[in-house]
Design a protein that fits this description.
heterodimer; A: 518 residues; alpha/beta; MetI-like fold; D-Maltodextrin-Binding Protein, domain 2; five-stranded mixed beta sheet; three-stranded antiparallel beta sheet; elongated; B: 261 residues; Rossmann fold; six-stranded mixed beta sheet; four-stranded antiparallel beta sheet; 11 helices; 10 strands; globular
Chain lengths: 518, 261
Amino acid sequence: MSLLTDPRWGEALAHLPDYLGNHVRVSVTALALGLAASLPLAILSRNRPVLRGALLGLASIVQTVPGLALLALFYPLLLALAALTLNWFGFGFSAFGFLPAVLALALYSMLPVLRNTITGLNGVDAALLEAAQGVGMTPRQSLTMVELPLALPVMMAGIRTAAVWVIGTATLSTPIGQTSLGNYIFAGLQTQNWVFVLFGCLAAAVLALLVDQLLALIENGLRSRSRLRAALGAVGIAALVAATLVPTLARSPSSYTVGAKTFAEQYVLSALMAQRLRAAQLSATTREGLGSNVIFDALASGDIDVYIDYSGTLWANQFHRTDMKPRNELLGELKTMLAKQNITLLGELGFENAYALVMPRQRAAELGIKSIADLTSRASTLSIAGDYEFFSRPEWTALQKAYGLSFRGQRTMQPDFMYAAVASGEVDVIAGYTSDGLIAKYDLVVLDDPKHAIPPYDAIVLLAPKRSGDEKVKAALQPLLGKIDIAAMREANLRAAGNDASSSPDAVARWLWEKVGK
Amino acid sequence: MPTKSLIGYANVAKRFDGGRVVAVDNVSLEVAEGEFLAIVGGSGSGKTTLLRLANRLIEADEGVITVEGEDVRAADPIGLRRRIGYVFQSGGLFPHISVADNIGITPQLLGWPAQEISVRVDELLDLVRLERASHRDRMPHELSGGQRQRVGVARALAAKPRIVLMDEPFGALDPLTRDALGDDYRELHKKLGLTTVMITHDMTEAILLADRIAVMRSGKLLAQGTPAELATSGDEYVGELLRTPRRQADRLNEALPRGGA
């Protein structure tokens, strides 16, 4: 199929009003907030070297924090703040999505604006400052009539840099729950949908260029004192914002939000749940690509209504348990702990997505390795690879302790590339996921865990506190419980990893429903 | 003194760098109404500081400065500057606004109606001999050095000041332009009944334009008076300053045949 006739372009286009609208709103708000903070600070500090140094230093430090981390940091910060205001003043606010994204992006926009405004103002010829004073200007008149107009080109260059940065970095606000053009990129990367990735990048680039050119028009108008051009630029930006508001206002507010973490299985399962809700005449949307640190809190605070998590993940990460329990006992205890937070554990889907040590079938047979216990004596000659978090997770510590594993080397990899790497012999063992479709595709084998060092990872449906008494949503999702076995999920995941139109989460979810729902 | 003093310095001192540099050292000087005073001195003599003390671009450390009989410390510095014209060394025109807007800046700050400012700008362009139509809407960078300085003079005169302070106004111009502009200004000074204080390092210019000359060196006022009075000053430096133009004139006379050129 040619790239141009791929039906996924149409699918991507259908999301555009929502994604682009949110992206513009969050970027423009962040930029406006950033400017509102930076410009007065820059003006205030232009004649105060100590304050100037402190501000520029601070802004530089912020700039060195990777965008993704800065955005992620604001979520727990605001969550704590919201808890405080709720305690002290009796009101809370949503620390999810828009607010943390705006604050982080605003902070991110400050350096170029601060630096260029200060540079621009300091670059004004001292003789002109004296002339301004000499003709009888007050300090404020000197600032507005002489200094700012003369510094304008340098200032606008900073503002334009900030705008492009903010629009680009806003794509990273998807994991903290802010819908953006990043939704295309995160979803595309996870489901090998390169059309989505390309579409998201292009849309963000076009938006950045457009805003940059509108700002250039405003600058040009201000500089040549052409009210028309400045107004045209301003109207352009206002129109952009207004245009993105229209589809939002027109759309009926969705009553159920289904959350999904940042990997393909989650995209498929959230699509499946949304389809089930809609089949039951409930309106539903999905919030995809949420960071695993964000999604549970988002459910607890009601920002999303339902999502799929895994028992072992909650056990270890959310409740910080290090002891191990058999599968059903762990589920029972988890249910009680969740109930204390008013979160409903509706039930299990029927498969586990556990971490597991995985090797090529042939290689394992040659080395005579059947279980992790067989690795103990061989590990010193083998290398292992895991995803970004595996080696800092309690499972890894437990595995090392239980089996006395000490590998020759360990590497961190993007999960999608891990399976190919172990299949090609690049690494010897990987920490994969039991439900991953690539296990079958590459003819890999999951090593047994006789000492049960890795906790069970049953896929479970969680409902937000405000949905605990909602029988309609429970009834709509009930048919999924216990129906999805590991083989079905692996095949679904394999389909989702395909690179064609039938591999979209929605299409795979429909296939999965056909297979298990009847 | 028969006429009344418009600017007065009494035992004025100004130090910079925490007292290490004495820019103006106990200077007393009167400028009479209608007078054209030139302050002559080398660089670092304190002449520019002395000028800026008058409209409070710089504040004095000691002594009393009066403008139109009023102690400047009691005056609002912004208002003071708006009623004193100031011509800057290389024009000091604002590069981002037109010639007309530059000229009309002080009236604009004073809140004159736009129509009145416009009329005044045309008047001033005539006064400094710049053609209205072709200069009004130009930007400063489109002007020659002499034209820029004419605009600088027009700007200083815009709000109809009685006093004009000029900081080496013609220093950076070529000799012909400089001569023409000096003569034109001298005429304006007379016609408008201005009181002018001009800084220059060029004694010839001072002698040709000013009624009286004050000579400064190292912050001190060495001598003041008409050129003839200065000639009687016993000060060696003042004598040297006065002899230089004469020597130059003599050499010029030798080199150029009378009636030639």
